[in-house]
């Protein structure tokens, strides 16, 4: 495949315009058009189609654009890692994680790792599960940690690490504190919800769907676990929270559990890597060894 033509196609797809891409790349519009037509002939696929006064990606074009982005993200990742080695002689490990592993598991693992590999530079980015997988797919992370039951991406390898207990919690003085109720009754309470893309929000909606009850009414939407639990402790709403995050609030009588009859909730934590990627840095393998020894 002609990678130069693929790079031009990617720029056209990003800007949704041949003329804008040509202007950005400082080459003529006909030259860009010729390269893309040659790429289409090489692949035997139509990548672009006219739409009004502009262009649009075909279904095949959208697929190729997504794959090309990952290819050029890999190229940038290699360049960055080489630059890091040249400037400092040290390796860099990029980690993406959802909130629960990032706040409650990774600090201990990373502290242990830095004792073994003190010169490796670590960058940890915390985001929701959807964003974390995108980070991994686009080579902006070397490995990732998520809490998610299903919807696994076909290009990702998921290594199960452990299950975490999840609790429904309310303010300590709430009428349902310590009570056992039906799920439908609890769903009538105002909920503190996570943002779109959060696996906890997806899980709660799926739980309601399985039990054929309406999803909870969202009274407050926050982006993080700690912020959400603090809102409950301050006296508002209910939420589904990991026990590892809520237990200290429970011990201090700031929140209380609500029990659902015949229901205990556990959710899996996975370590994620890109599928079919055979070669990893020594730091990568050292970090995985520390994790596997810890669980």
UniProtKB/TrEMBL annotation:
Molecular-function GO terms, alphabetical: DNA-binding transcription factor activity; transcription cis-regulatory region binding
Keyword annotations: DNA-binding, Transcription, Transcription regulation
HTH lysR-type domain span: 1-58
Cross-referenced Pfam families: HTH_1 (PF00126), LysR_substrate (PF03466)
Coiled-coil stretches: none
PROSITE patterns: HTH_LYSR
Family: Belongs to the LysR transcriptional regulatory family.
Stated name of the protein: Transcriptional regulator
Organism ancestry: Bacteria, Bacillati, Bacillota, Bacilli, Bacillales
